[in-house]
Every structure is written in structure tokens, then in C-alpha cells.
Amino acid sequence: MSRSNVPAAAAYARPWRFLNIALIVSFLSWIDLGAITVMLPSIDRTLGTDNNILQWVFSGYSLMFALVLIPAGRLGDAKGRRFTLFLGLALFVAANMMAGLANSGIILVVARLLQGAAAGILTPQINALVEELFRPGERGRPFGAVGATSHAGAALGPLIGGIVIAAGGADDGWRLVFLVNAAIGIAAAVLIWRYFPSRSTRHQTNHQHDLIGTLLLAVGTTLVILPALQQGQWKGLLPWLLVPVGISVLVVFRSWETATARHHPPVFDFRLLTHRTYRRGLLVGFLFGAGFAPLPAIFSFYLQYGLDRSPLITGLTIAPFALGSVLGAVLGGFKVNRYGRPLLAIGLIVVVASLVLATAFAGLTGTTFSVVTGATLLLAGVGGGLVLTPNNALTLQEVSRADVGSAAGMYRTMRQVGSAMGLAIITATLFAAFGANDGRWSTALRYALAVAIGIVAAALLTSLVEILGSRRHGRGRAS
Predict the structure, then answer these.
(1) Positive or negative torsion for Cα 58, 94, 412, 206
(2) CA nearest to 94, candidates 76, 77, 107
(3) Per-residue pLDDT tens for 403-448?
(4) Domains and CATH numbers, the chain
(5) Which of 55, 138, 174, 442 is the most exposed place for a label (fewest CB within 10 A)?
(6) DSSP H stretches of helix in 13-139
(7) Full-model pTM
């Protein structure tokens, strides 16, 4: 009897074995998101792409990631984690091979969209595994491990990409990054086939998929994000009319979900928005994703295009961001129950302060700039870790266990939508400011950081409003 066919209860007797395999998968998907920041100049030279293609290579991944998260979570519930992980890894391997062998920018964009879809399939299964493998009181450490892995993958991506490009050559080293990821994806699939049980620990039921609701959510989200992704090519204000159109589609999505919830499991149960902490947590996650996720990218562009640094030196300069993110995520996981939402505000203040320092030192050059940037990114990473992990726990704290899957799926979707929009808007600001200021990269970096500061400050304001609201609510209940 192969281990994949043993009874599920016996196979899951050692939960950390399965979670560790799943964390390898998570790490791979987040590396794909981070490594691209140091690969774009090499891709530009090799394929002769324009800025629009590079924008889609960079941001299209996050867009597809966001769109696939919720339906992929439903698929995993219906078909089981093993099947869905296999499906996501198969798409992941195929997309990375396609990207590594791409001979045109269009093919690379398609490959990146498929990579994002694969990551969107894989991520919900890993979070659901924690719920399946561990009792409620035991989930702190595994959720901390999941958070630390995702932070490390995204933030270490530039360093790993820089090392592989240095080994493979400036022109074709970027291809090697994709091909190595494909090989590791195959190895992860073998581990899942060998050790994961074919049957889930949970009783599986037939799930009626809400295809219309899923389509409405995807179309509405795409229309809202598309003008930001295309702002370098679509001039004027007319394309931004797609935003209210997209919002209208999302309103239709809400009406559809409310009207048909009795006949099928909804894509998202809008009754969850009656929880104040959940509403505010979604907004904080969206805003913080928009302001925080682009930081490695804009510093990578500045270092490579503005200061002519190699991908390896760029990755080394950004690496402290990864260390800080992991430290902050672990610390946040340990301290969130003790300090609650004020811990979130502290993290946001730390991020804003670090970005203000980075803006002040944007005019430095040479080794001094790299050292100072590394220090500010370390600080930003710690602050970011203190935001992301606690906000995840606090946003879901009032959600019932029966609704936690849908609530967590929408939370991750909102965060990824924010990341996609932030990546598009802030990187476009960087390049537009470069063109409008006679090619002064330091000025362009300051403009981009100013936008990031404004967005993170909005997240801080939202968090402070929630803290004050919670205290008023507590006093009201006491009286």
C-alpha cells in the first residue's frame, strides 16, 4: 500500500510533515511574485518589450492571484486538498516552463497570468490545511509559519532572482529563475503524491458552484483594476470610467449573491459585513496591500535603472526587507492576543516612519544609499509583519467557524486586489515622475514613496478609527 492510499486519519497523525510540504509550495508561489522585480531589465533587453508589456508581466500576476483565490478555495472544499494542490502545481510548472522558454513579451505575459492563477489555486489550500490539521488552540504556530513563509518568499524573491541571474548570465539568467522554479514544483508534486492522503480529513459534500457569482466578481474586479494597469498606455480620463462600471458590476454581484444565497453556497456571504471589525479589517488589508506590496519593486527599479546596480546587488540591498518581514510576522503572531489592534497601529506607524526616512535619504548614492536603504527596508519589513499577521487574526475574530472559509477568502482577495492596484499606480508614478523631471531618478523615487506613504497613512487612520470605536463599544457594553 502506497502512503498516498493510507486512511486519512492515520496519514494526518503527523500534521507538521504535511504542513512543511505545503509551505514549500507556498514559498515557491511567493518567490514568483518577488523575483520578477529584479528580472525586468534583463527581460527588457532580451525580448525588447515596451513599458506596457513590462507592466503586465509585473502586475498581471497579482491580478490573476486575486481573481482565483475565492473559487479555488471552493474547489478545494469540494475536491479535496490533494487534488487541488496537484492541479495548482501542474499549472505552476507549466506556466514557469512557458515563461522560461518565452520568445516574445506577449507569451511571457500569458505565462505570468497563468502563474498568478496557479498561486491563487495553491494559497487557499495551504490555509485550509492548517484548519484541517490542527485544533483551534494549536493554530497559532502553524499560521505564523504560513505568514512567515509568504513574507520570506515575496521579500527574498529579489535576492534569489539576483543570485540565479548572476549565475545564468545577464541576458538569459531570468529564464533560469523560471525553469528552476518549475523543477522545484515537480519535486513538490512528488512529495504531495507520496505523502498526502487521497481523502481529506473532512467529510466531502457535493458543492454547487455559483458560476454566475464568480464571473460577476471577476469581471467587476478586473474593470476596477484595469485602468490602473493600463494608465501608461490609455491616456486621459476616459479609461477611468471603467472604474464606476466595475463598481456597478460588483453591486450586481452583491444583489445576485443576496437573492440566490438560499439555492447555493454564496461566493461571499455579505452578512459578514455586519461585523464592524471584519469590515475595517478588509479595508486595512486592502489599503496596506496597496501601499506596502510595491516597496521592493520601486527600490529594485531605482537601484537597477537609476543607479545601474546588478540584479545581485539589488537583491542584497532589498534582502533586509525579507528579514524584517519574517521577524515582524513571527512577533506579531506571538503578541496579537496580548496587545490586539494597538499592535496593528504600531506596525503601521513604523512603516510610515521608515518610508519618511527613505524619502529623506533618496538623494544618496553609492554604498551609502544601499546601507541606508537596507536599514529603512528592515524597519519597514518589521512594521509590515506587525500589520499583516495580526490583521488577519483580528479581522476574523468575530466570524463564526462556519463562515471563516468565505471570510478568509474575501480578505485575501481584497489584500491581493489592493496589491495589484498599488503595484500599478505606484510604479506608474515612479516612471511618470522620471519622465516629468528630466530623468532624475531620486525625484521619481520620492514621488513614488509619497504615494505609498499616503496609502499606508490611510490604513493607519482606518486602524485608529477601529481602535476608538472598539473602546466606545466596550464602554457602552460596560454601562
Answers:
(1) positive
(2) 107
(3) 666 677 788 888 888 888 888 889 888 988 988 888 889 999 999 9
(4) 1-198 (1.20.1250.20), 211-264 (no CATH), 268-479 (1.20.1250.20)
(5) 138
(6) 15-47, 51-79, 81-100, 105-133
(7) 0.81
